[in-house]
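The records we work with from here on pair a chain with its fold. These numbers are not coordinates but entries in a learned vocabulary of local backbone shapes. To see the layout at work, look at the sequence and tokens printed below.
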Amino acid sequence: MAERRSELGRREFLRVAGAGALAASTSILPGGAAALAAQGPSPHELPPLPYAPDALEPYYSQQTVELHHGKHHAAYVKGLNEAEAKIAEMAQSGDFGQAKATCKALAFHGSGHVLHSVFWTNMRPGGGGDPQGPLAYALSLEFRSVDAAKSLFVAATNAVEGSGWGVLAYVPETNRLVILQAEKHENLTQWGAIPLLVCDVWEHAYYLQYQNKRADWVAAFMEHLVNWDDVAARFEAARRR
């Protein structure tokens, strides 16, 4: 069941990430764009957790998981659907006066939904340790060693200014792994970067359990929660795209 839920999470991420490509491909097909426009895109949904809410105890409390997933992530899904509905309304009416605010909301809520969808499957009970296989080789090639890559990820995540994320991503354009910071959800990224491993350091992600000790949360995430199998699967999928 856990594997099935994890796969659902990955499918939702790929659906979000591939929505633009789908729209572009249908636009060149006879009648495809008209049919798609008439039907409208299906709304985004909150992906289920790939484990029970208490499965990550004691390193990630059930109360935090339920609040984080059921309230905060759900709010990003709602905001994304509302932004897309507003864009459809503007396209229908021809009034684009709210384009700036709507596109900003689309970036914020859409990025929040994508990153959270990755975040949940990036963790598992009994996680941590080190990656193996091609992912470990690629990390060593890019950052000199797996330990150096992990240390950089931790340092970057702890140093995020304000609210945001630490992100390990793959960039198809350059065939490189990169470690980035994301402020809020959408700032400081690289175009085309595909998130493989993300750690949420918004205060809502850890404050109930770790208070203001962000470094303690990040250490627990890396040492006890990271699902390297999921990260490796995302890496392989990203390289095949």
